Amino acid sequence: GEALQVNREVNCVTDFIHGCEDQLQKLKKQKEKGLLYGIPISIKDHINCKGHISSGGMVKFLGQVKEEDSVVVQVLKHQGGIPFVKTNIPQTMINYDCSNLIFGQTLNPLNHQKSPGGSSGGEGALIAGGGSILGIGSDVAGSIRLPSSFCGLCGLKPTGNRISKQGVVSPLIGMQSVTGMLGPMARDVDSLALCMKALLCREMFQLDPTVPPIPFNDEVRLRGNP
């Protein structure tokens, strides 16, 4: 309901992910409750979710309904998270605004005259507007950091190759020198840490053996700067 309301005001959601209720019922029956149990999670447009498109803001991707979840979405579900919406991006995603010819312009919920930033602008707008508490964005040159800054949120671009990018649509192929990364966006740092801890688990390392199997180290985070 909150997400619908925010979307009406700032146009940040591209699709609602079906089967959330079924997933919740399935989770309730499981003995093991994951670290993200029951948390609704918003997902940036180009991260594959089964039965949905990953447009990248481009018409050429519109006919391609994805047959399976990306690794990151599989791991979120494994940890009890419930991906519930996909969020808007600029065309090609190499941009610090958030508009495309398919879904239109996303506005900043704090000031409708301003941009929410990009390219994870739909995420920034939805979380800042109160429609989501945790989202997965992506960042090459600021695409998590800019919308987090513009919308007054916390965001993390992890180290390259830290989180699996299997099942993520990219308009640019072969860019090796600067690594794009998926990462969490939320209202506080603790939420980012919890999400990273949840993602860096055995399930992800098994699903994508190219990711170094290094779990999240809470001590390093809490040590802070000397």
UniProtKB/TrEMBL annotation:
It comes from the Eukaryota. GO terms for molecular function: amidase activity; fatty acid amide hydrolase activity. InterPro entries: Amidase_CS (IPR020556), Amidase_dom (IPR023631), AS_sf (IPR036928), Endocannabinoid_amidase (IPR052096). Pfam families: Amidase (PF01425). Residues 5-213 form the Amidase domain. Keywords: Hydrolase. The keyword Hydrolase applies. GO terms for biological process: fatty acid catabolic process. Belongs to the amidase family. This is VDHAP protein. It comes from Ptilonorhynchus violaceus (Satin bowerbird). The gene is Vdhap.
